[in-house]
Amino acid sequence: MTASAILFQTFSCKNQKEKPVQEETKEIASVEEQLYRPNFHFTPKIGWMNDPNGMFYLNGKYHLFYQHYPDDNIWGPMHWGHAISTDLIKWEHLPIALYPDELGYIFSGSAVVDYENTSGLAKNGEIPIVAMYTYHDPKKGDEGKIDAQTQAIAYSLDEGKSWTKYDGNPVIENPGIRDYRDPKVTWDEERQQWAMILAADSEMMIYTSKNLIDWTLTDRFGKDVGSHDGVWECPDLFPMTIEGTDEVKWVMLGSISGGAPNGGNGTQYFIGDFDGEKFTLDDSFKTALAEKHDFWIDFGKDNYAGVTWSNVPEEDGRKIFIGWMVDGHYANQVPTTTWRSSQSIPRTLRLISENGVPMLRSEPVDEVRNFIDKGLEEGTVSIKEGEEKILGGEDIDYSKARIAYTLPSIDEISYTFKLSNEKGEELLFGYNSDDKQFFVDRRKSGIVDFHDEFAEKISVAPRLSEKSVHDAEILLDKTSIELFFDGGSTPITEIFFPTTPYDQLSVISENGELILEDLKIDQLKFD
Ligand code: FRU
């Protein structure tokens, strides 16, 4: 079953299953706020959230919209919630940007800054921000009609504060495809046109336009490429330069509702060329795909539907990505009541060439480092085989911390970090040199029984770097861990729900002498 099908199904039986938010007691809310409201990850103030949508940057502000149902804590009639930030870490909530209407719910989509007013939507010299999204007609959906999803636009003439839906909506009718959604628009500088990619069943469709209103279908991609163990959703398509070269490649992201490395939802990527109409896989990427593996933006269970910000200034030059930090299979059941789910830390994507194959790396945006309060420089720590060493001391609050270290050589080393509390709840993560895999084990991490798929297995992820030297940067919040191994070549994102905060960190050397160089355990500061 697709992620949306699971969410939609839960929605239709919500009245028998769940109490509305308003009935929850204040007591539960405050315990939950304290225990589970993240310190530095974006969450909706109240109600349900899923995919990040419509992200753009303008005049010092990063805008983040998101799939939102404000009236309950489970998936429902979709709105676009809205928040802004000057640093990608601290967010200010703004009023809901788009409400469902007679054409349907407002599903996922994107937004661009239309500097040249190509859309003609500005009449008095303003710069329109144009959002493109999918309408999902719930009535047609419930009746099983194939054409419930169409594409539409809305615009803002005041830098994103208020939004008007275009009166000629939908701008693209449904061509007879049930899952037909999530338009992501990019400015194609070379051809001076807009390019848009959307997910259609189990492939991508690419359209182009001169005015953001009239769209021409130019390509269908992906039928026989990558994983097809689910419906394709939430794509992205954008150019990037391979680091250290002048070579530009186009990166395609595509979320898939099943078949991710550790089961459930995940996001694949493809690297290739775009000639203004068609996307073609890069030859070496194609060979690697055929020979080796699928390419994933994250290997953990909890990073889905991620896309990138538009209009980040050229002098900044970053491609900044954010994903929904939960798996759709259990998103409706995670143990919070007043709100549900959070977004990942925004990440900088880099395109590098590894043995001639273009590959993505992702790392937390640098802005996170501005929140380092005090760094505990542990220096070099060595731990003998079989030993467990407690790190960090008692005054570290692991619900807002950053850990970083380097191993001079990882070849024969296996290690396990353990984050635990006095109730014996523990989160384990580390590396196993026997199978060259990283792992996160949340089987005893606290509340795990809200869904069978949450903690049935240890999550594993391949070590993709072939270098002997190994590094890691790890971000810890109240309910999430984001691990960026080997310069972000293997990112893993997972969530957890301890019944009391973890307050001890230790590391166990499973195999050989573990040498952690430049070990840093940084306390992050958030009010
Ligand atoms: C992905 C998704 C999108 C859709 C949205 C609906 O999680 O299913 O494909 O637009 O959620 O909320």
Automatic annotation (TrEMBL):
Glycosyl hydrolase family 32 C-terminal domain residues: 416-521
Keyword Hydrolase part of the UniProt annotation: yes
Domain Glycosyl hydrolase family 32 N-terminal: 41-353
Keywords for this protein: Glycosidase, Hydrolase
One example of a Gene Ontology biological process annotation: sucrose catabolic process
UniProt cross-references to PROSITE patterns, sorted A to Z: GLYCOSYL_HYDROL_F32
This protein's GO CC annotations: cytoplasm
SMART domains assigned: Glyco_32
Gene Ontology MF, one: sucrose alpha-glucosidase activity
Family in the record: Belongs to the glycosyl hydrolase 32 family.
Record's protein name: Glycoside hydrolase family 32 protein
